[in-house]
Inverse folding.
């Protein structure tokens, strides 16, 4: 599903965020991406969502090399990836329904279909009945779940999340992670960037650890850092 | 059928956005309306001036003054000859006696005229050429014909002021084109700037839309509709301004026309004029929004 081949990323300001990073994420897998802040986790996600392009090496997502993708194909490419942010990036002046419906609206989905799928997505995150609420009327945990509903509403084969539990207390964090695992159960490939090692330990999925832009270990389950307990 | 739905949504969304900020929207609309109303009213001025003077062809007259020693019988004979010409619509002979009588009645110098021993006025033939023979060249030819008669003293043509007036209309028409061009650019600039502000205010939203896979066309669409609505709304307001002006001016213009013995009424814009105004306004809005959106949307890319 995702292949990084000797990827380096150097930003315009000269900072090297990734250096010679290679790893694979298989279809249907759930992977944690860990490391301290600044280690390059966000850069990896940006390269996957095509918010940035690699300086060297190649990134293959859904069988497409992001480097060769033409600008006019970027929108269609992004529609096949659900993205969840730490600050959830909801539109504050739009009700929950509109926020969740956005990925469907940009794909010219018929209105009836949008209605059905938005309800289904909200049901999955336990927020059915809150369609008309504005984001600020919801708790932080609920807002994050709206963000997740938006990421999965168009049923993308790949879901990526950048510190999705960064603002949540342990109970809510666990709840959100369980939600991600439920999507993995139905075949979605999930990549979660987090520095919450307790949570990572709790779930025991494969872990890719970055340090100063380098990959630690081989990124395969048998070469996990020793502090990560497998289930 | 999903595309029209998307467009309809974008259109309704844009309409709602404009309605949510009524004062700013109204101010922008007024600016656009004034910019559109100026060339539109200039055009009305030109068409009305043409209509008011539409019977100039028949107003052109040659006054043929006979020498004072020409007898009335001879003058009648010549008038008959003039009537026989193909380029003459009407020839009216005013005898010297009748001319004096008219002068006495209308000039207010009746007493002074009584002191004259003999009638100083000649017989005069008023000749109205046919409309198709009203061109300067045709008039000159007709004038030459009358001048060749030995009995004729003087031929006057009252056409110079018509030519001057047509010249003024021509200048106005060119002014109209220039004003329309300049103000059209002004409308594009006003709408482009409004769209630029709108884009800046919705930056976060645009980033999110691009992030979830919104194409450039999808992102641009609501802004194009905002531009279209501004242009169309401005044109409608311009139409209203013009209609009001015509209503207010109608009576005084009719009065003025009556003083000139005309039944001329101020004419409003034709359906074609209104159609051109609305289509032109909407097109300018669309173009302004397109230019602005192309410039400013490109720079907005999502950041994670």
């Amino acid at each position: 599903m995702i292949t990084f081949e000797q990827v380096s990323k150097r930003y315009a300001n000269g900072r090297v965020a990734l250096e010679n990073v290679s790893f694979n994420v298989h279809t249907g897998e759930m992977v944690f991406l860990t490391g301290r802040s600044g280690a390059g986790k966000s850069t990896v996600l940006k390269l996957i969502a095509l918010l940035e392009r690699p300086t060297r090496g190649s990134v293959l997502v859904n069988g497409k090399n992001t480097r060769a993708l033409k600008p006019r194909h970027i929108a269609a490419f992004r529609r096949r990836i659900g993205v969840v942010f730490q600050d959830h990036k909801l539109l504050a002046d739009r009700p929950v329904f509109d926020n969740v419906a956005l990925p469907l609206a940009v794909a010219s989905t018929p209105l009836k279909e949008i209605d059905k799928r938005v309800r289904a997505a909200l049901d999955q995150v336990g927020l059915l009945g809150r369609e008309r609420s504005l984001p600020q009327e919801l708790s932080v945990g609920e807002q994050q779940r709206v963000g997740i509903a938006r990421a999965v509403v168009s049923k993308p084969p790949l879901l990526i999340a950048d510190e999705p539990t960064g603002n949540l207390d342990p109970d809510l964090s666990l709840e959100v992670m369980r939600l991600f695992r439920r999507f993995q159960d139905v075949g979605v490939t999930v990549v979660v960037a987090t520095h919450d090692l307790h949570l990572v330990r709790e779930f025991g999925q494969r872990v890719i650890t970055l340090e100063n832009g380098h990959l630690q270990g081989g990124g395969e389950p048998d070469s996990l850092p020793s502090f990560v307990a497998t289930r | 059928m999903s595309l029209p739905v998307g467009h309809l949504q974008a259109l309704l969304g844009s309409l709602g956005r404009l309605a949510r900020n009524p004062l700013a929207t109204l101010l922008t609309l007024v600016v656009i309306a004034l910019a559109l109303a100026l060339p539109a009213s200039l055009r009305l001025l030109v068409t009305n001036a043409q209509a008011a003077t539409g019977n100039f062809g028949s107003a052109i007259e040659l006054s043929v003054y006979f020498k004072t020693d020409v007898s009335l019988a001879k003058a009648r004979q010549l008038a008959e000859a003039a009537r026989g010409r193909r380029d003459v619509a009407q020839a009216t002979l005013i005898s010297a006696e009748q001319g004096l009588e008219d002068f006495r009645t209308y000039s207010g110098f009746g007493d002074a005229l009584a002191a004259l021993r003999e009638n100083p006025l000649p017989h005069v033939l008023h000749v109205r050429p046919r409309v198709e023979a009203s061109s300067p060249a045709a008039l000159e030819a007709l004038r030459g014909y009358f001048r060749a008669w030995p009995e004729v003293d003087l031929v006057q043509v009252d056409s110079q002021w018509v030519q001057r007036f047509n010249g003024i209309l021509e200048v106005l028409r060119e002014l109209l084109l220039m004003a329309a061009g300049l103000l059209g650019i002004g409308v594009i600039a006003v709408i482009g700037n409004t769209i630029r502000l709108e884009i800046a205010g919705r930056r976060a939203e645009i980033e999110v839309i691009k992030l979830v896979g919104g194409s450039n066309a999808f992102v641009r669409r609501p802004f194009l509709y905002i531009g279209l609505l501004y242009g169309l709304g401005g044109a409608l307001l311009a139409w209203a301004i013009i209609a009001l002006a015509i209503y207010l001016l109608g009576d005084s213009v009719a009065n003025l026309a009556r003083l000139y013995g005309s039944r001329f009424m101020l004419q409003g814009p034709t359906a074609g004029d209104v159609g051109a105004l609305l289509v032109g306004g909407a097109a300018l809005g669309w173009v302004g929004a397109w230019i602005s959106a192309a410039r400013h949307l490109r720079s907005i890319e999502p950041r994670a």
Observations:
- The domain at 61-158 of chain B is CATH 3.30.70.3040 (Alpha-Beta Plaits).
